[in-house]
């Protein structure tokens, strides 16, 4: 019971962080919650650190052609989804992302799931899904971020 209460408390805290920053929290049972839950619940933010170039993508047809706004596995995109080069970061890996400046992402960092790929995402790059309009997402631009690889 204590474990459940602790998990719910962490989830509520994470939801509040996303809400404060204007980003909707991925629904309970989302791939980020299911896969990275043990890291979120324990507050783990340590692992191998890599510095990557980051861009962002929106749920638009242009950013998700030809499949639409779904991840590599065909699941609907959600807050915390990121596209990676699987040769650098394996698909299914949980990440802690920091170092960006965006009003559309949580202040201080966020847990992410490497569950998408992209034609332009090659090498030391990451593409962050932001569920906002194309103009809001484009404002992210190109940034350098610090990514901690937590594990699977």
What's the helix and strand layout?
Layout: H1 2-20, H2 31-42, E1 48-57, E2 81-84, E3 93-98, E4 110-116, E5 125-129, H3 134-138, E6 143-151
Parallel strand pairs: 1-5, 2-4
Antiparallel strand pairs: 1-6, 2-5, 3-4, 3-6
Helix pairs in contact: 1-2
Your description of this structure?
With 152 residues, the protein is α/β, with parallel strands linked by helices. The chain has one domain: Beta Barrel (Barwin-like endoglucanases), CATH 2.40.40.10. Helices cover 24% and strands 27% of the residues. The chain contains three helices and six strands. The chain has helices spanning 2-20, 31-42, 134-138, and strands spanning 48-57, 81-84, 93-98, 110-116, 125-129, 143-151. Strands 1-5-2-4-3-6 form a six-stranded mixed beta barrel. The radius of gyration is 14 Å and the shape is globular. The two termini are 25 Å apart. Mean pLDDT is 84; it is low at 1-26.
């Amino acid at each position: 019971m204590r474990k459940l209460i602790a998990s719910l408390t962490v989830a509520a805290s994470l939801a509040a962080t996303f809400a404060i920053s204007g980003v909707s929290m991925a629904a309970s049972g989302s791939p980020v919650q299911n896969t990275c839950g043990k890291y979120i619940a324990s507050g783990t933010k340590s692992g191998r650190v890599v510095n990557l170039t980051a861009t962002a993508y929106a749920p638009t047809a242009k950013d998700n052609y030809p499949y639409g706004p779904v991840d590599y596995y065909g699941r609907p995109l959600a807050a915390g989804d990121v596209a990676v080069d699987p040769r650098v970061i394996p698909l299914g890996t949980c990440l802690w992302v920091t170092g960006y400046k965006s009003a559309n992402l949580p202040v201080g960092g966020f847990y992410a799931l490497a569950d998408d790929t992209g034609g332009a995402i090659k090498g030391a790059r990451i593409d962050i899904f932001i569920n906002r309009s194309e103009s809001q997402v484009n404002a992210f631009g190109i940034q350098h971020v610090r990514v901690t690889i937590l594990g699977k």
